Amino acid sequence: MPRWSPSALGAPSPGVIRGRAERQPRGAGEDGRRSPCSASKPAPGATPARNPPAHRHEPHCRRPRSLPPPRIAITPPRWPTSCTTLDGNPKRVAMGAGSWELPDDTLTPLASSPTLTSVQRVTSLSPQTPVVSVVIPTRGRAAKLAGALRALSETDPQAPPFEVVVALDGEDAEAEEVARRGWSFPVQCVAQRQQGAAAARNLGAGAASGSVVLFLNDDTRVHGGCLLAHADFHARQAGVGVLGRTDWDPNGEITPYMRWLAPSGHQFNFSRLTPHAPVPWDATWATNLSVPRHWLSEEPFDMGFQGAGMEDTEWGYRLHRRGFSLVYAPEALCFHDHRYDGPRDYRWRARLAGQGARRAVRKHPELAFTLAAKPCLAFVARSFTLALPRRGYRQRLWDWDFRWHYVVGLLLGR
């Protein structure tokens, strides 16, 4: 039995279809009065008409009792998927797999989210309101996005209902085509003009319907129990965020440089975190992170961060100042599908981290020592240790290379 509870997460009970029209009494019209065609027998003593009135053939009249009420069966059963284009015009796209039968009531789409001003929201029709909304920002990596969605289709069947919101950072026809494919869950696709990962996450969170928002990257594949672990933690500890663990994808080659980068290096350092304990603000990594949705309306990502570097860390600092806490849950596991052969492949990420630190320090001067002075001192110290004749010279050189490009991005802002 699943351990999560819909009521604990503020979700409606299963089986409720959002937007379902309220049923009127049998034979009633739109104003609540009985339709003229509802009279099934003539009055006593009256002579029946030879020809039935014309309105009996009109579409609003009740069907004969001998015919059952129509039901819409989808074969093979599928989920509707929706997509929104850059100009804000909704576009119905492919149907994904699912299993349900819709009554003949009219299902009305939800209203646009108040946080979406430039993009119209189109909501997929589903038999249950999602508890978890998975937000995936992406740009120019359609193949990686397909792998992420494919992994979500293999999630634990005990996981709560969930949806996926693909946030396109700029026009991307290939990624849009991936979102149109038939998936076993509702998919929304929203787009913006290229503004960076921070703005794309805000856009996706604004289109989300679940009470919990789970941020993933387009190059991360969830483990089968990842969503269940996130939902279970939120059900047991309301009002906290959950940081899941991210390991390298075991299906690909893991180079020595990748082993140095994570999970105990400059990219991810999970070795300094204690399971099920609070997470420091500088370990806020949005690669596998879930938070209550209202956090995003109170503290959205800073859209001034144009690149993918330090925007989640600065956001984590603001959450920390407001008293919002994150907890580390290693059982919420996902796999990172990104190959790095050596320092040359990661230098641009180090530059972006330095640029992001420069903006964060300007915004929060109290972070000058943590994000600026301390890394510069560490770079100087590492420069001296390169002259020491001891083992691990290659790893020390990698560390020096990373710190050098971080400092360059910090000082030059580019």
Give your account of this protein's structure.
The protein has 414 residues and is an alpha/beta fold. It folds into 2 domains: 73-336, Spore Coat Polysaccharide Biosynthesis Protein SpsA, Chain A (Alpha-Beta Complex); 345-412, no CATH class. Helix content is 30%, strand content 17%. The strands form 2 sheets. A 10-stranded mixed sheet has the order 3-2-7-6-5-8-11-10-12-9, with helices on both faces. It has a two-stranded antiparallel sheet with strand order 1-4. Helix 2 links the parallel strand 6 (162-169) and strand 7. The longest helix has 21 residues, at 343-363. The model is unreliable at 11-42 and 48-126 (pLDDT under 50).
Task: Using the 3D structure, state the CATH architecture of the largest domain.
Answer: Alpha-Beta Complex
CATH topology of the largest domain: Spore Coat Polysaccharide Biosynthesis Protein SpsA, Chain A
Query: Largest sheet, described in full?
Result: 10 strands, mixed
Overall mean pLDDT stands at 78
Uncertain stretches of 5 or more adjacent residues: 11-42, 48-126
